[in-house]
Design brief:
249 residues; alpha+beta; Cyclophilin; two-stranded antiparallel sheet
Length: 249
């Protein structure tokens, strides 16, 4: 059985299909939709050529000067980040707080976004892969630094610059080895095909949970992402979610 959600907005209907492979997000989205949690909420954050975001309960009837984006049902959802589901145009994904306060990348209990993005040239994706490899190397190195934090502090207190340099070289080499063991980050042929033809936001892959995709109404997503916005990326004209209907097929 596949579940689809009809998102009735003030601009028209968007129909999304939920992935069975992300059951925690699937069941939560269905639960909130059936409880009318989203009724009257806004697409409170809209960025052209990027995405449209909604699901903040604080956006219901919110005045134009109210800062939005932190509301939710009071819980988060464990990440279900799967390589098979990526940020192609029309992807339905869960918003979340940043890594600095949310290292496990747990999703917001209610806020979601629908990807628009852009179409990339193959050479742009190749350059992005190089950046991803550098970021992976840095992340592995930073983790090793944390593991050797006490040793580093002892060397600093002893003003042992030579010892620090030796340890740094060792950590750099170990990080390089561990990073290579993880594999060089690269887009799959499916991702490359999608990002060079349909479009999307490849730089978000592996960072956020994608739990569904738009099956109908992508023109409504396009219309919303083109809307004029003000401070905080909020549309000048409120774009609301009137209701969500759950359809099991």
């Amino acid at each position: 059985m596949q579940t689809r959600i009809i998102i009735k907005t003030s601009e028209g209907e968007i129909i999304v299909r939920l992935y069975d492979e992300t059951p925690k997000h699937r069941e939560n989205f269905i639960k909130l939709a059936r409880e009318s949690f989203y009724d009257g909420t806004l697409f409170h954050r809209v960025i052209k050529d990027f995405m449209i975001q909604g699901g903040d309960p604080d956006s219901k009837g919110a005045p134009s000067d109210k800062m939005l984006g932190v509301g939710g049902p009071g819980y988060t959802i464990p990440a279900e980040i799967l390589p098979a589901f990526f940020h192609k145009r029309g992807a339905l994904s869960a918003a979340r707080q940043g890594d600095e306060v949310n290292p496990n990348r747990e999703s917001s209990g209610s806020q979601f976004y629908i990807v628009w993005g852009k179409i990339y040239k193959p050479q742009e994706l190749k350059q992005m892969e190089k950046q991803m490899a550098m970021q992976q190397d840095q992340a592995v190195f930073n983790a090793l630094v944390q593991e050797h934090k006490a040793e580093i502090m002892d060397l600093r207190r002893a003003r042992d610059r030579e010892g620090l340099m030796v340890l740094q070289d060792q950590l750099v080499e170990e990080a390089r080895k561990k990073s290579r063991e993880l594999g060089i980050p690269a887009f799959t042929s499916e991702q490359t095909e999608a990002y060079t033809t349909v479009g999307g936001t490849p730089f978000l892959d592996g960072q956020y949970t994608v739990f569904g995709e738009v099956e109908a109404g992508l023109e409504i997503v396009e219309k919303i992402q083109n809307t004029e916005t003000m401070r905080g990326d909020r549309p000048k004209k409120d774009i609301s979610i009137i209701a969500m209907d759950v359809v099991d097929i």
